[in-house]
Amino acid sequence: MYTGTLIKELMATVERAEQQAEQQRTADERELHAIFAMQILSVQGDQLLMGAA
């Protein structure tokens, strides 16, 4: 039979995994925001150019 300690350890492992996943999502969102902030919109004639300078 499972002991209370084993269940507590499993729950703690799941919580750590969830925290790490949330931290990674946050870091990814910050990186994407920084990339999008670097985008420069430029219109030359009938061409639409976008890029990071």
Task: Describe this structure in a few short sentences.
With 53 residues, the protein is of the alpha+beta class. It is 66% helix and 23% strand. The protein contains one helix and two strands, in the order H-E-E.
Could you explain how this protein is built, in words?
By secondary structure, the protein is of the alpha+beta class. The chain is 66% helix and 23% strand. It contains 1 helix and 2 strands. Strands 1-2 form a two-stranded antiparallel sheet. A hairpin with a 2-residue loop joins strand 1 and strand 2. It starts with a helix and ends with a strand.
Question: How does the SSE layout of this entry go?
Answer:
Elements: H1 4-38, E1 39-44, E2 47-52
Antiparallel strand pairs: 1-2
Look at the helices and sheets and give the structural class: alpha+beta
Helix content: 55-70%
Strand adjacency order, main sheet: 1-2
| Largest sheet data | 2 strands, antiparallel
Taking pLDDT < 50 over at least 5 consecutive residues as the criterion, the unreliable ranges are none
Dominant shape:
rod-shaped
Order of helices and strands: HEE
Radius of gyration: 22 Å
What is the average of the pLDDT values?
Answer: 82
Number of helices: 1
Instruction: Let me know the number of strands.
Output: 2
Strand-residue proportion: 15-25%
C-alpha end-to-end distance: 62 Å
